[in-house]
């Protein structure tokens, strides 16, 4: 994939996202879903033009949701830009933002846009009157994975999902689940629900979906910290996926790439559309395509529609942002930050996403991302 020097993706309509996706990171963590040891071919890597002025080591951290994307991006980028080392620590959105606002990383990854107080904190690190801004870089579905022996297909709706994660529905043969799955042989078995142990944008996006679609059954504010009582906690998307994979009777939430790589069954959502909707990159793209930019200036935070009932639109989606200073970036890493993000936002960088279960950012939005990355100072 020869990296284009021109800004802009292939001319595709906003409503017809190209579904592409394999993400990669040279990060901490043991949940790689790609063969990062393989040598990238020339078509996989960036062209040397993107390497201009990039040098030394670039540290970044944050969202585990984009780990698999980062792994690929880092591998491809470093294969071309010799002498540059990019190290992304996959932890959580909350930890990434803290690290960014402490000035210990060149950029951070977050599954949720910066809060006003986090923007205020960033002004202490971003010099020359700058502040942290949200650059949407990765899209994709949050899958509801489950492990239930003898049940290969499972449909849930928002109210039932809310009651499960709020410990109000405790058994798999509950009447509400039976009603949605009349042909399934649901066992009289306790539900073991897993959630993230640390602050997570994935948790917050699931909360936004439940708040928007099942307000009477989900009374919690959409926050990064898991709000409901009960359930079991695991660290990172990889940790939740591992528990669901191992424990019969379990259910949890994580990015689709984790379900795909570990062959975990995923729930189809009854959204009110003509048929239950499966968690796929293509179906997530249909939901993300309707996103609007709600940020101002160089901030490109998006407003997602979690209540869509459009046929084939999977509504539990997230967009992962890269957080950088609009101006006043660390001079020692600025050129490398711009170089690396130029690649990730390029046509080639976005194209690799679908191979790993992610969805590229819509073209109209991504053009603005490219322009903003070029203007970082």
What does this structure look like?
The chain has 377 residues and is an alpha/beta fold. The chain folds into two domains: 42-140 and 289-303 and 320-375, Periplasmic binding protein-like II (D-Maltodextrin-Binding Protein, domain 2); 142-285, D-Maltodextrin-Binding Protein, domain 2 (3-Layer(aba) Sandwich). It contains twelve helices and 13 strands. The chain has helices at 67-80, 93-101, 116-122, 158-165, 175-180, 201-213, 236-246, 256-262, 281-288, 334-344, 347-351, 363-375, and strands at 56-62, 84-90, 107-110, 132-147, 155-157, 192-196, 232-234, 250-255, 265-266, 268-270, 292-293, 302-303, 317-325. The strands form three sheets. Strands 1, 2, 3, 4, 6, 7, 8, 9 and 13 form a nine-stranded mixed β-sheet that branches. Strands 5-10 form a two-stranded parallel ribbon. A hairpin with an 8-residue loop joins β11 (292-293) and β12. It is elongated and about 60 Å long. The model is unreliable at 1-39 (pLDDT under 50).
What separation lies between the terminal Cα atoms?
28 Å
The SS-based structural class is alpha/beta
Number of helices: 12
Largest sheet: 9 strands, mixed
**Could you give the order of the helices and strands?**
EHEHEHEEHHEHEHEHEEHEEEHHH
CATH fold call of the largest domain: D-Maltodextrin-Binding Protein, domain 2
CATH architecture of the largest domain, please?
3-Layer(aba) Sandwich
Radius of gyration: 20 Å
Integer tally of domains = 2
Identify the overall geometry. Answer: elongated
Share of β-strand residues: 15-25%
The number of E-state strands comes to: 13
Domain PBP: 54-347
Keywords: Phosphate transport, Signal, Transport
Organism: Streptomyces paludis
Protein name: Phosphate-binding protein
